[in-house]
């Protein structure tokens, strides 16, 4: 009788994954501020949405605050990668705070688009998730012109002043497919809806979703390393399931993997959100290797070579 060979356990590792240029720039900006000025360095909101990054910086003397009003007068505050509204900048100025703006340049681009369309008196439909910091900062550029469209219900009931002067923009970290679904819905109601001058969804969000789609159908389980409050990480879980993965979960650390998820699993897909340092992915690969998933095949769909200069406040120092 011939012995049935065990199926080979393997890991498909998505590339690109992890840190994008905007996150890298923001984290380096805080580290450089610590180096130049010493602690404490205040950061409004989380610099990026990742527990490991935030906890590591907190240990080094960074104080994370929810609002600018919590920063003592005259101190140094860094604005997070997600961007802030003009009202936040004005408050920082009133409190005589020294500021370093670590807003991702791709978010700044959307802010500029809002300003441009507001000047031309367009109604701006901002596709994004309610309560997300990036959306709050973007909408705050022109609150009288911007309306948030989060759900299908929002798209069905949003009203505009002049259907011939309406444009859609989007949060940079959304699912490409979900965004286009909203856009199609809106175009059904407003046939003259203008598209943004360039793609708002960030190259890194889009690339990470493409890599997951390329491997999901072969995966019994996809593990996405990322934090619960990271929009782009949450989207990777959804994209994996939609693209054919049998199961998918979001974890911050390897220790959070439930061994029950691995029952009957041959192929595990691994990726990480755009605010995740690769050390956390390496920890997960080591954890899987100890349990028999030692063979790792990289699935590459793009090579990223983008880098952003540091915030100007740190360039001249």
How is this structure best described in words?
With 317 residues, the protein is an alpha/beta fold. Helices cover 38% and strands 18% of the residues. It is built from eleven helices and twelve strands. The protein has helices at 21-37, 51-59, 86-94, 105-119, 133-139, 152-157, 176-189, 203-216, 231-242, 278-290, 312-315; strands at 10-15, 41-44, 62-65, 76-79, 98-101, 123-127, 146-149, 166-170, 221-225, 248-251, 267-272, 295-300. It is flat. The termini are far apart.
Q: Can you describe this structure in just a few lines?
A:
By secondary structure, this protein is an alpha/beta fold.
Query: What is the C-alpha radius of gyration, as a whole number of Å?
Result: 21 Å
Could you give the count of β-strands?
12
Mean pLDDT: 96
Which sheet architecture does the biggest sheet show? Answer: 5 strands, parallel
Helix content: 25-40%
Structural class: alpha/beta
**Total helical segments:** 11
Strand-helix topology:
Elements: E1 10-15, H1 21-37, E2 41-44, H2 51-59, E3 62-65, E4 76-79, H3 86-94, E5 98-101, H4 105-119, E6 123-127, H5 133-139, E7 146-149, H6 152-157, E8 166-170, H7 176-189, H8 203-216, E9 221-225, H9 231-242, E10 248-251, E11 267-272, H10 278-290, E12 295-300, H11 312-315
